[in-house]
Fold:
Amino acid sequence: MARRKPGTLLPLETEILEVALSMLSSEQATFHGFGLAQTMREQTGSRSLTGHGTLYKALSRLEERGLLTSRWEDAAAAEGRPRRRLYELTRQGAHVAEQALADRADPAPRPFPRVASEPA
Amino acid sequence: MTPESMAKLVARWVRFYTRSLPAPIASRRIDEIHADLHDHIAHERGHGTSDRRIALDILSRMVRGLAADTSWRGRHARAGSVRRVALVTTLVLSVPLLAMQFTDEVAWGVFDFAVAGALLGGTGLIHRLAVSKAGNIAYRAAVGVALAAGLFLVWLVLAVGVIGDTGDPADLMYVGVLAVGFIGAGVARFQPHGMARALLATALAQASVAVVALIAGKHQAPISSVFEILGLNGLFVALFIGSAWLFRRAARATPPPLPAPGRPRAREERRSSR
Structure:
């Protein structure tokens, strides 16, 4: 597992924000865990989906930092299948994702985008 | 091996690592993984992936997430431990409350309950905070012994007094003993190497109190004999030394802290300049 520097995001967390931003730009404001893992697999060309624990821990971290919000899907919309937890990028999350994309375009070495201080 | 049987295995693992966590946190994780597994199986079947391949993918995702699952649990378990401290404090305080209903021998006032609650709750929270900083059994035992000794000392001083009768000003010396322990722990930042030294200093302070009490002639009072002063203080000295010994054992499993960045390693520099 990658070690976290205080006040920074892990590469996976940055990737999640970037994918969420790309979904937002294609008018898909909310996303769920498996859908996100699937999109990340497609975008990175990886053969495997992100591990359950890794994915949901990263999502909960991003939510604690105020970069994502989440709510349960309406029972009616679930149509008999288990209800999904729907995540949405916050304004701050979108800003961090944009900054991460800009940093990637810029050759200056800044691998970990800085965000607000760690929650207690 | 079907995707459904593998999903059951994952569900069992999720229930295992969310056990005893606060219900909303545990049920959210269980439900979220349940939905993920359902979506995963439905999506792959829709794309014509074989059941064996789907089952292996699910197993792979579970295995690759094990470390993150464990660390996630650790973080949330710490939050739950505050609730456990509150519960244990309430249970302990309910004993004198219950006793008061049956006998006049126990007569606690609101102040007594408040002080006892603050002592027990505070000790419990300090224990959880200190234990969360490091993990090995020796460290946990060392913290437990030190806090139990400190709690027992405070209770003894407040309830009956160690030197002389209750309220003897000589008992104020024990404030200094506890201060040595707290300041030492603060300076050591809970690191086992420093904590061992802090607890030895506390034991020394405790022994000094006994010596001062004897020199001041407190053993001549009818209520505290030489045996009582030496016996009670000796018990606390033994407990603090025991805790220091456990911290030393914990320190053997922990590398010594590195000096702060940019801070000169004075001893090493002196050695190398010879």
About this structure: The two ends of chain A are 21 Å apart (CA to CA). Chain A has one domain: 11-76+83-105. The helical segments of chain A are 11-25, 33-44, 52-64, 75-78, 91-105. Residues 11-76+83-105 of chain A form a domain with the Arc Repressor Mutant, subunit A fold (CATH 1.10.10.10).
